[in-house]
């Protein structure tokens, strides 16, 4: 997919792997990518929040394997109920963000609530109000302010990790 976005022009590369629950008994592709990812966006649906399965995956693979973690609560448009006031909707979204932050032991600033579908519709149609309501700007800001600038640090840690294991293997070979 080619999309002209400033984050992509600044070096952000996105690899979308299948969700673990969609993989059945062969999750190796997704799991093998976690330790090498510069950042991991853990996509959840806002209407279900963090399920028991999500929490198990988070605790077993994401927390120990990913250095930079962001939880993304997608589909906030499902909460846009015409019978609720904007303040009530905002309060419900904020509650779900707080719960997700607590469950995943993430700073609240690393939990974004978005509607990816509405963000795309807004971008295609040039609808600024819908784009703002989609919440995508918060996620883009998080990526732009923390992930892209940290790319050099992330790459340095990855090289150190790779070279460190090679040096250790060489040291063991020499010792034996």
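Sequence proposed for the structure above (176 residues):
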């Amino acid at each position: 997919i080619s999309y002209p976005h400033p984050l992509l022009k600044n070096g952000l590369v996105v690899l979308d792997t299948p969700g673990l629950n969609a993989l059945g008994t062969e999750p190796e592709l997704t799991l093998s990518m976690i330790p090498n990812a510069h950042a991991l966006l853990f996509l959840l649906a806002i209407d279900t929040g963090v399920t028991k399965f999500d929490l198990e995956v988070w605790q077993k693979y994401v927390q120990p394997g990913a250095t930079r973690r962001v939880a993304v609560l997608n589909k906030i448009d499902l909460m846009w109920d015409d019978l609720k006031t904007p303040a009530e909707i905002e309060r419900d979204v904020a509650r779900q963000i707080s719960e997700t932050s607590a469950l995943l032991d993430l700073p609240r600033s690393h939990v974004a609530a978005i509607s990816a579908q509405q963000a795309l519709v807004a971008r295609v149609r040039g609808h600024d109000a819908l784009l703002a309501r989609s919440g995508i700007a918060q996620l883009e800001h998080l990526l732009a302010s923390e992930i892209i600038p940290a790319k050099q640090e992330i790459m340095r840690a990855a090289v150190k990790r790779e070279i460190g294991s090679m040096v250790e293997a060489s040291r063991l070979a020499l010792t034996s």
